[in-house]
Write a structure and sequence with these properties.
The protein is mostly helical. The chain has one domain: Four Helix Bundle (Hemerythrin (Met), subunit A) (Up-down Bundle). Helix content is 75%, strand content 0%. Helix 3 packs across helix 4. The longest helix has 32 residues. It starts with 6 loop residues before the first helix and ends in a 6-residue tail after the last helix.
Length: 181
């Protein structure tokens, strides 16, 4: 594979973001309730629904991107992936705002549904960590026409990213009854 001259800048940025972002998100769960921020009279309680919409739209865009590359429509494939990544970035920012401003919600289901929820939640969280570097690197390689490297990456990126997007919606559906009003 022929390296792109921009690799010496882009790859370190991808690596740094891939380390900093998961640490920052994980630290949100250690934030004491009395440290939560208030943004005037703003009510961010509807953000979990917004997050589900973003995740659902991301999954749709990923499916569109997959369909577009199968029909060799590279321009729409790129557009769909850039839009999916953009929605994921909006999700990430909104998720951070939600966690620093809303009280924590806890799943209250019992029995088998509880086990199912936690299986989905744990796999969603675990797989969300590699999605960021995989997506950034896949998009970067595709954008720079490093098609062979791009194809090798997306064999992993696509199913993991799709799983994270779909399970993000499922986590919201499971949690909806337990979010404060």
């Amino acid at each position: 594979m022929k390296d792109n001259p921009n690799d010496r800048y882009a790859i370190p940025v991808i690596v740094i973001l891939s380390i900093i972002v998961p640490i920052a998100v994980a630290s949100l769960f250690l934030l004491p309730e009395d440290w939560k921020l208030q943004f005037g009279n703003a009510n961010f309680r509807s953000l979990p629904f917004f997050h589900a919409v973003l995740n659902g739209c991301t999954a749709i865009l990923l499916a569109v991107a997959f369909g577009m590359i199968k029909t060799k429509n590279v321009a729409l494939h790129r557009l769909a992936n850039i839009l999916a990544f953009s929605l994921s970035a909006v999700f990430l920012i909104s998720y951070i705002v939600s966690h620093i401003s809303n009280p924590d919600a806890h799943f209250g289901g019992e029995g088998w549904i509880r086990y199912l929820y936690f299986f989905i939640l744990i796999t969603h969280i675990t797989l969300s960590v590699p999605v960021l570097p995989l997506a950034m690197l896949s998009i970067y390689r595709g954008w720079n026409n490093q098609i062979s490297a791009h194809k090798k990456l997306v064999k992993w990126t696509f199913p993991i990213w799709m799983y994270v997007a779909i399970t993000g919606v499922l986590v919201y559906i499971f949690m909806a009854p337990y979010y404060p009003i």
